[in-house]
Amino acid sequence: MRSTIRTTSITGRHRGRALVCAATATVLTACSGAAGGPGDTGVAAPAPAADAELTLTVYSKFSAREYDVVTGAMEGLREKYPNIRVEHEGNQDDDKLAASIRGGNPPDVAISFFTENLGAWCENGSFQDLGPYIERDQIDLNVIPEAVRNYTEFRGRRCAMPMLADVYGFYYNTEQFADAGITVPPKTTSELLSHAKKLTKFNPDGSIAVAGFLPSMPFYNNQAQIWAPSFGATWLDEQGRSNLAASPEWKELFRFQKSLVDYYGHEKLEQFKAGLGDEFSADHGFHRGKIAMMFDGEYRTAFLDEQAPDLKYATVPPPVADSRPDRYGGAFTTGTIVAIPKGAPNPGASWELVKHLSLDTETLVELANGLKNVPSTVPALEDPRLEVDEHFQPFLDMFSGGKLMANPTTSIGDAHLKAVNDFAERWQAGAEPDLEAGLRAVDAQINDELEHGPGGN
User: Which residues, if any, are the signal sequence (predicted)?
Assistant: First the structure.
């Protein structure tokens, strides 16, 4: 499964890589000196003629089994355009993509796991405006849920389309629940704290043997952006500025998280974390029964099927703040995006492949079944060919429940996410004793970056 969250100081594959500042800086300058192309005019380029033999080059970060799934889905375009070949180059990250655009040799289609970079891609022109194509082909974007539409556009400019989505729910070990006498998963944060205490086991020396819930941020998918929907916490105010210090939701989030950290003890948690496996390995703490409850995306179901087939678990929506019962059933969402880079050689044909990967129901179902991600249109979500079991169904319910929240699309990539997760590390360690003052400093840092770019340059 792929994962599109980029973490700041921890492990990961796809969604968990530490490319943060370097990738953002590269993206922000991607179009400096870039060559133009036939589709950079603001006018939709025509579809390829039936007798025009051409090859579309696609960059993506997919690899191994996932690469084969995505390549097979791309080949479906030949049913409509047998004269178009697709050359899929996997293991290409956003740095490589930015360099190709800057050098005037971009692929025809770009697939990125990092929605955080979209604002920069749009603002500097690295990704072409798809509005003329959507208008010409009379595309109804309402088939895409609102939260997904939001994270694939920037300031009203649509320069990408979604290609599957991720929804972050709550996993729990049913055998450990039964052993602890717990019959229902937590729906509120107070229940989460109570369950965590009942499920936690300590070694004779006081160290943690099993964590009912691991609150350390950022670690695995314990990240600010994953927690935020449970508290209704938003990133920017109506003026587009960071205003965390004035947000009761962010304060409640961090105070609750700190109460969990204090229950275990920060040093014990650090020691416990050091003994856990990588997020995408078979030694993941949940796989090994070392963690009883956790946040994670729908793609984790496939990892568990492959790496821990005997583990008994269930999935539900994440627990929510006691003050926000209305948020239950909601979740954080993000996903893969597909776009036409600046200077793409065959933009008209590129758009046909973008449409194929983002709007064709059969293709989306094929991709969702192969990658175990959520299809990003309503028709694909409702298609009977979509493979669903009791572990996957809750994610589909959350996706269609109208309570999804996504990260804001900004021109500074994921700098705001990094700033808040960095603060969370200091806060849980006791290095930020004044919550409001600490959040004011984070606001100042983010707002400076929003005004001047990452680093305040």
Answer: none
